[in-house]
Amino acid sequence: MTYENLDRKLVNALLDDGRASLRSLGEDLDVSVTTVSNHISDLEEQGIIEGYVPEVNYGKLGYDVTAIIQLKVEGSALPEITERLSDHTHMVSVYEVTGDHDIFAVGTFTDTDHMNEQIKELLTDPEIKESNTSVVLNTVTEHEQFDLEY
Could you give the domains of the chain? Predict the structure, then answer.
């Protein structure tokens, strides 16, 4: 087999099954286990593959409320606030954004009382000028990744 597009094919195969063995990947892609191992190592070193993690269904663990929190912050405090949010136990995503707000954060909580308590704690920071919280009613898609074209 030619190695053209092998890295993209490996990424796609790992997106399908992140626990696939080197042997099964080699068989599927018609290359040796050593070739698969070397290419995966290269992809990891380049930062293209950053880890292998399970997809956790937090709802089945009792975290039934997901909220999207939009914040306006004092400009100079943006790095400090985003770092604090990213370290927050219940925040699963934190984004610096353009538009009316500076930060979008997605948090997962056990119930609305827990969410309320956590958000009120955040809002004690005087650098946060405004907030808007939306509770997710239905998750249509989440954590989706897409196959690479080759």
Answer: 6-45 (1.10.10.10), 58-135 (3.30.70.920)
Pull the structure tokens for residue 6: 């092998």
Who's near 88: CB < 8 A, 6+ residues apart? 105, 107, 118, 122
pLDDT of residue 1: 52
SS3 13: helix
CA distance 117 to 110: 11
Over residues 42-70, the mean pLDDT reads: 93
DSSP lists the bridge partners of residue 107 as 67, 91
Furthest C-alpha separation in the chain? 61
Given a contact cutoff of 8 angstroms between Cβ atoms, the answer to whether 127 and 81 are in contact is yes
